[in-house]
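Please decode residue identities from the backbone states below.
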């Protein structure tokens, strides 16, 4: 249930109403816009007398929210959420380019890629330290050593960093990581999501390979219900019958998620397509569709990459892509 307060409602009036609503064992989410304040009521709202609430002098309208996700719902929070990582903003008109290797392999590799993507205009450096792989015999990442090397790259370039967490027991290793990524395979690891919700770090939540958009938003709700509102949604392709690409990139997810939710939405065309030649056109399409950013894989020697070399751009290819993205963004504005 949401209650929209009238323009001109004083802070004292708002606080008095919130106290009354909380007396009914409801959580109250407050969203202050330029014109109105929206109160989102979370809990058993059946005990709320809608007619009584609507009749209050300071209340403009009262509506029930039918969707199961509440805090991630745009009805609860009409204005776009802007998530900040370091000095980089994502959402609400701010577009972020995240780039780096699928896996951190050596200090030389991550430093070379980090410096190259920064020079080309990347905003955030990505790099996998813990790697969930289909085969137990594939390269699983350098783990804590990989995070150490990623932090060295952050120190050398000044770029904020993002890397994926697989197990909550490793959370202490992420103390200096700017954005924690939850991968597609962990999208419905609800215990992990709830623990991440107790942190204040930005969380990039990837859509699962076979999950609906509502399920993605419900997973975001798990994080937000614990107090962390710094959630970024990521469309990375879904599994379908098509075999010409690694996955099927659902670009319609961008406008749909923007309509349903106030959270930023970025697109990962690397995992979606699985082919480096398809990454630039799909990244451009994502920007044109209104995404708040893209995340692409860049490797200094894709042919020798220990993970996902086929979908990785070289630094010159990434430089060309970023030039193209700037033109698209300028044209859209």
């Amino acid at each position: 249930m949401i209650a929209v307060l009238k323009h001109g409602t004083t802070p004292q009036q708002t606080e008095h109403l919130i106290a009354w609503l909380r007396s009914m064992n409801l959580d109250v989410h407050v969203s202050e816009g330029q014109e109105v304040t929206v109160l989102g009521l979370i809990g058993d709202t059946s005990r709320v007398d809608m007619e009584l609430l609507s009749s209050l002098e300071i209340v403009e309208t009262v509506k029930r929210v039918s969707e199961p996700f509440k805090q991630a719902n745009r009805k609860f929070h009409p204005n776009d959420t802007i998530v900040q990582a370091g000095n980089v903003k994502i959402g609400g008109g701010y577009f972020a380019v995240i780039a780096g290797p699928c896996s951190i392999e050596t200090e030389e590799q991550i430093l070379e890629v980090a410096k190259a993507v920064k020079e080309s205009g990347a905003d955030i450096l990505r790099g996998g330290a813990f790697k969930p792989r289909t085969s137990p015999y594939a390269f699983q990442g350098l783990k804590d050593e990989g995070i150490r090397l990623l932090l060295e790259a952050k120190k050398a370039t000044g770029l904020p960093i993002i890397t994926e967490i697989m197990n909550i027991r490793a959370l202490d290793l992420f103390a200096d990581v700017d954005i924690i990524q939850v991968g597609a395979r962990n999208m419905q690891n609800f215990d992990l999501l709830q623990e991440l919700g107790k942190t204040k770090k930005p969380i990039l939540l990837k859509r699962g390979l076979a999950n609906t958009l509502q399920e993605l938003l419900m997973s975001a709700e798990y994080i937000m219900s614990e107090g962390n509102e710094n959630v970024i949604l990521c469309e990375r392709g879904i599994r379908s019958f098509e075999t010409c690409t690694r996955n099927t990139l659902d670009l319609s997810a961008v406008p749909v998620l923007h309509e349903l939710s106030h959270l930023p939405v970025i697109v990962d065309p690397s995992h979606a397509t699985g082919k480096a030649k398809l990454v630039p056109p799909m990244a451009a399409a994502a920007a044109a569709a209104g995404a708040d950013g893209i995340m692409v894989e860049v490797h200094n020697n894709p042919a020798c990459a220990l993970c996902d070399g086929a979908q990785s751009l070289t630094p010159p290819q990434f430089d060309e892509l970023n030039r193209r993205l700037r033109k698209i963004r300028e044209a859209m504005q």
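Observation: The mean pLDDT is 94.
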